[in-house]
Amino acid sequence: MNSTPLPRxxxxxxxxxxxxxxxxxxxxxxxxxxxxTDTVAREVQAGAETDPARLALQSGWGTRHAxxxxxxxxAAWRLxxxxxxxxxxxxxxxxxxxxxxxAGRKAARALGIIHTGTTGLVIEAKRQGIVxxxxxxxxxxxxxxxxxxxxxxLQAVLHTIGEDWx
Length: 166
Hints:
Layout: E1 8-10, H1 12-20, E2 34-37, H2 38-45, H3 52-58, E3 63-65, H4 72-75, H5 81-93, E4 96-98, H6 102-111, E5 115-116, H7 118-127, H8 134-143, H9 151-159
Parallel strand pairs: 1-2, 1-4, 2-3, 4-5
Helix pairs in contact: 1-3, 2-5
């Protein structure tokens, strides 16, 4: 039985947001390999010289992966280049894509591509004991500029792990 967790292919937004709050460990929870497509890496590298995600990539964080061909059914969704590249690689490798954009998540669902978002990662990290408070981390992420679901949705999600949003 193989207990090695599947890699994750991360889009720019979750990578940038988690780096801003110093929690890239949420992406690697459970000793997961984090794959970063060349397209996503270029998007991150286009950020400010002091951007934490840019600095993390420059220091060798994550595993770079060449972009792979994008199938016509995925291209038809006309997603951002980074989301498209992340979904194409996740589909090819049979692993999870980590993306927060609604259109990208909708495409992933429709195409049967395993996916999660930053909120899902935070909940998983809380369940694994990697973060003490999912609510506090989500608040930090919101302050850092990450768009999060409504307060009512966050309350419902946090309730499943015994936390409260209010």
